[in-house]
Design goal:
single chain; 267 residues; alpha/beta; 2 domains; 8-stranded mixed beta sheet; 4-stranded mixed beta sheet; 6 helices; elongated
Length: 267
Amino acid sequence: MSLMLDVSDDVRAELGDEEADRLLAGENAPRTYDCTSCQSPGDSSRQRTSTVLFVGDETAVLAFAHADCFPSQVVPVSEEQLKGAVRSITGGNGGQQSAPTAADIPGADPGQAVLSVTCGQVLLGDELYPAMVVEPSAPVVRPGSEGPGDDFLPLLIEHGFMPVMEMNKPPSEMAGWSVLVVNGRLHSVLQPGLVGGPTVSWWEAHQPLPVTDEWRSAARQRNSVLVYAAPAGSIGRQPREDLLRTALDGAASRGLLVGGSMPLSGT
């Protein structure tokens, strides 16, 4: 079966010519997959598909993405992120293939869900604020819990997020948390580490995410970003900021939204 796979030179160098040629021949590549970037289904027999190799200190995971979403490349990640992805691929997420996004939800197993992040400006009163909206791809449960259930919001509240009942004012500031933007691209959300220790990544982009000039300017002006979070299926991918605000209003009215204000770190 002929597949429309892109294998970059650096991925080929890591895999070796023999394995790369087997992939291109369709021997070791799936026809259907979930895109490691946008998480929506892909079909490598009908659309150009990137091979993405996540490499840790001791482990490597090969994932697939729509070529329009993510180019074929080698992505260095931490070994812990990679182990979470392996757990997901081998059954921790119902057999669904998930790429290693740093979905390091406080108190939860990072292999259970991938965090989707949407950036946009939200109108609170008469003022626009730069905001990030975080939503997992699946329900999140505590380690050791067999479910069913979703502990995403309780876990976040335990770590400083506050319930948002109405979108009429900014949520309170979260001590020790920050949003890292470098050279106009969103890199990560940082959370407090152990007592006396450095901050650690709570969410980290596979590849630094571009943000609009307006969002970046507003973040620099206010020196802060509003970070909202909701359970899986509460917000969805909204193509416009007004629709994002409407979805946030709906989640808040149903008691399904938490938030916090975080200082901007970087440029």
